[in-house]
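Hi U.,

Before I forget, here's the chain from the pilot set. I'm dumping it here mostly so it's searchable later in email.
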Amino acid sequence: MSPPGWSFWCVLVTLPGALATSGHAGHEVICLQGLSDCTIEDMMLLSPRNDDVAVRNLKPYFKLCCRDGALCALCLVIDTEIDFKPASVTLCYSAASVMPTCKRVEFIGIYGSLTQKEWPKFRVVIREPAGVSFSTYVIVFSSEPAHLSREVEAPSLDEVCSQEQRERVQQCRVPRLSSVINQTMNWVELKLSDTNESLPSVCVQYEKNGKCLEWNRRPIPLYSVTPCMCLQVWNEGELGRSLSCPFVNTDVLQRNVWQNVSVSMRLGQVSNHHSMLWWNLSAPCRLEGEVWPCHNDHTCREMEGSRQQLANSTWGQNSKGLWEKKGVFEEIKSHLSPCVMVKLKGRRDVLGPFCEHTNRWRWSLLVVGLMLLVCLTVLAFYFLHDVVKEWVWSCRPGGFVKISKGGHVVLLSPPDVDDSVSESVCQLGAQLRHRGFNVLVDQCSRKEQCNLGPLPWLHSQLMEMNSRGGTFVLVLTRASLNRAEEWAHWSKEGSKTKREHGTVSPYSDVFTASLSIIQADKQLGRAAEHFLLVTLGSHPEGDRRLPELLRGLPMFQLPSQAKALLHELHVGRTVRGAGRRTWKGWEWITSGGGTAKTSQKASYSKGAQDDAEAR
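Structure:
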């Protein structure tokens, strides 16, 4: 037989691992066993009455009270076991910094229905207990005996709002955002779902457990949006918040993470005279991958056995909201100018090398030195302005030309090179650098090429050459000649190929991009001012004719024509630009129509040139 009062209660619904709900509408008491006619009333915390029954056990816990479709409320439930004595019980509860609240329960005992091992029980339900909110610690105690007390923690708001009844909890009714990626404007717009109301309070964070930074209520630039970006939304003055990560499955935004990766390093000395290399990697999202040190030579050769993993669990977040990973490499040879390389999971290429930046005091010294140099230069021009008016000239067949000490050289590697060819290109760069040239090998500028693209990167180098002089040195191999012929064919059949192969780009790498610049310069009659050709060892195709696009450019075979190449790099650009001369076989043809013999052996492949003249 059910105890009195049971018919007024809804059936409890308890989900595995979830907060139970019930249909209580207010403060109530239920007689569970051995009791009847249970009543409850409020009372002040006073000394125990003579008829108070001793409490044997207290079991407090929390439930959600939901009834008749109304909003749910947090309820404190206290299951109580008492001694065999018909009287009353006083129960009290209190939260931190709040005066205790007491309830007096009266009842009639019907102990005959109990066994010797059972005790009378009743249950007290207190709806919205005073001073108690989510995640609050509550102490429950009885007046008799005075030492009996129990602690219980109210569930967190996140736990409550994760239940099926969250829509019936006022604190869980928080705004929800939707995001729209505007590709035209390159930004992300935020708005409330299913409403046109103004946006509530919003903050942006990277990763679900990251720091949330205040949002300035403007469209978010697309370059700063990453798959790990999350948004918190709440109404001002309320506790409930919603967290959403709408870009988690947007793979196209992964490049924004890679483009915002920053690596710094610092070389230091320890007590045992060994060097240590500290490194710091920061990114919007936590990443997986590897970091290793390398020697700062032309290929940044790896120091074996020193790779370190970028584990997800060891990242921290800085004040700007970026995730950081720090590490150190021990026993580093500082005289080899160590750098750091990074390989990220999901990305094919390797980032780096990242090398140590000059200390601040060195920069300060450099600034002071530059200021002194400027002052001395101004004074020198003031007193010697009549003397400093001429350039140093050198006599060459066909006229006078300017001689410069060294120059800017950009080495362009052939496509699909193997390790031996790549190493030969780097060795050529080292030899030119040793001769005083400012050499840039395209293999060492992969990061900048990835950021700008091959053609914009080449245009930036071309603009630098136009301002201070320099030469592109194109290394020829069998693969590069094939690529030039393919590109020429593509250029002639461009419109048809584009329709049939819409995804094929003529600027798939730096070498291919250089062909487009050569073609453009050739149409202007100045291709030879910027480009020259180099073959390593024997000619890549024997007597095979050069592609039409490359004809008319100076070509040198190394190592036999190394001296001619050095001389051409020193004076060739000025000669070709100022004298308006073109290379023909073994002679310079000047603008006046005359020819001037030269003893240098810089030439095309002889067979290729003869074929060109025959045509």
